Each structure stands twice: as C-alpha cells, then as structure tokens.
Amino acid sequence: MFALRYTLEKAVNVHGIVFGDNNVIIAAPVISLKGFNDISEIVNIAKEKGIHILEIRYDYLLMENKDLSPSNILLQLNNLGFPYIFTFRSPREGGVYEIPDHLRLKMILDIIVKYKPTILDVELYVFKDPEMRYYASSILKYSKDEGIGLIVSYHDFNNTPDYDTLYRIGEEEAAVGADILKIATMARDFSDIITMLRVTHDLRAKLRKPLITLTMGERGKVGRVLTPIFGSDLVFVDLMGKSASGQIPLSHMLDFVRIMGEL
User: Fold this and answer.
1) Which superfamily does 12-262 belong to?
2) Domains of the chain: which residue ranges?
3) Which InterPro entries does the record associate with it (predicted)?
4) Which of 10, 66, 114, 155 is catalytic?
5) 152: which of 34, 80, 173, 221 fits an S-S bond (Cβ 3.0–4.6 Å)?
6) CB within 8 A of 161, min separation 6: which ones?
7) For residue 249, what pLDDT is reported?
C-alpha cells in the first residue's frame, strides 16, 4: 500500500483488479513458456510471489512457437481464475512478431469473443487510423459487451515526447473509449522522467481514470518506481524475463512498495 499515492476518489474494479486505490497493481509479463509444462506452473509462481495479474505477451509466445494456439494458454487461465492482460503487440510499438495489422486485429477480436480476457491492451493508433475503423469499433463494442477492461496504449521506444504531446495522447486514449490509459516512453535523461511524472499527475487530476505510465531504459527505472506515487496504478516487473528495457526485478519492486507503505 502506498500511503502517499495519488488515488481516485472512487476506485475502479476490473474483475477483482482494483485501479485507483492506495495499492499498486503488480503485473508480470509472460514472454516464454520454455521450461514449463503449462501455464498453471507460471500461475503458481505468480501467486507465491505476490503477482496480481499476468500479461500474456502473445507476440513473444508466437515468436517462440508459431503453432501455439491461444486455447492452450487462455482457456487454462480462465479455468484457473487467474487474471491476465492479453497483449498482441504491434511491431510498430515494440511487438516482436511480424504480422499485418488486419490479421493481428482479427485474431484479437477472436480472442475477445472466445476467451474474454480480464483486460485487453490495444494501441491508440488502431483507433485513429480510418483504415482500421472496423476493427477498432468492433474491439470497443465487444470489450464493453463482455465487460473486458480495455487498455488503450501508446509506446515510444526512442524518446519521451514533450509534456503537451503526452497529455494530448492521454486525452485521445480517453476519448476513443479506453477504460485504462497507458503511456510508455524511453527516458534519455532525468528531465524525461520529470515530464512523465507531471503528465501522470495531471492526467490523474483532470481525467480521473485508471492510468498506467512508465519510462523505459536504464534511466527510466527511476520513473517506474515514482510514477505510482503520482497516479499510475500498475507496475510491470521482471519475474521471468523482461518485455521492455528497464523493468525492475519483482523482489526490488516489492521492497520499494513496502518502504513506501511505511512512510
């Protein structure tokens, strides 16, 4: 629990995952199944270590096994009742599996209908591109109909844009129908971290929505531990492999959360 965290007046509960209260959600990306018989073994580790939610990085898993069926993972997760974010990231924003957007989005729609993930992550540009309007509107509709939490996300793996640009991105994510806003940028220096902290605070103050913000890279580690204080609700940790640079080992993040809870 972060006693000093900038919270929402009314927390938002997404199938048991609570955004906006004094607790910070700890998420662990799953980027490989090597060394495991099935996903249940990863779930057991997550429970033991205090992970609140897994992020299934389907692009990484397809790179590892191109014949992988989502039913091998998602149906079992649903049966186990462990919450997960389903992310099939575009190469345009850090994904590792090359696939045309229309095929990727069709697969995402199929996932929503068949498996109903706890939370779904889709990039902001999908909702802004007129050529993807059908997929964007369908994803939005089915997510709302099925009660799936929708993260609309933006990633910049090269730089941190200026304050006005980042704030506008947050507004755009909210405008297209996001349940949860997400902004992730590469921190080149400490001024980038300060920019992200300002944006985090102001988006929480003005939009009053669930929010995930973070900075990537070695310098970005500082931002990863500070953004929750300013209003970011979720942190990604390195439990069994990093999906982005600067992710902090779980044990270190738990130490930080404990220290902040004692202040």
Assistant:
1) Aldolase class I (3.20.20.70)
2) 12-262
3) Aldolase_TIM, DHquinase_I, Type-I_3-dehydroquinase
4) 155
5) 173
6) 169, 185
7) 81
Please confirm, yes or no, whether 182 is among the known catalytic residues. Answer: yes
Provide the H-helix boundaries in the chain.
39-49, 58-64, 71-80, 101-115, 124-128, 133-146, 163-175, 190-207, 220-230, 250-262
Q: What is the pLDDT of residues 137-195, one digit of tens each?
A: 999 999 999 999 999 999 999 999 999 999 999 999 999 999 999 999 999 999 999 99
CB 143 within 8 A of CB 112: yes
Length of the chain: 263
Euclidean distance between CA atoms 231 and 228, whole angstroms: 5
Q: Give the chain's radius of gyration (CA, Å).
A: 17
Q: What contacts 156, CB < 8 A, 6 or more positions away?
A: 184, 185, 186
Query: Contact 204/235 with Cβ under 8 angstroms?
Result: no
Enter the pTM of the model: 0.94
Q: Which residues contact 148 (CB under 8 A, 6 or more apart)?
A: 112, 116, 117, 118, 119, 120, 142
Tokens of 215: 């900075």
Contact residues for 45 (Cβ-Cβ < 8 A; gap 6+)? 51, 239, 240
The pLDDT of residue 262 = 58
67's tokens: 């014949």
> Which residues of the chain fall below pLDDT 50?
none
Q: Which of 52, 182, 209, 221 is catalytic?
A: 182
Binding site listing for 3-dehydroquinate? 55-57, 89, 224, 243, 247
Whole-number pLDDT of residue 244? 60
**Token pair for residue 62?**
């397809």
Q: Tell me what pLDDT residue 257 has.
A: 75
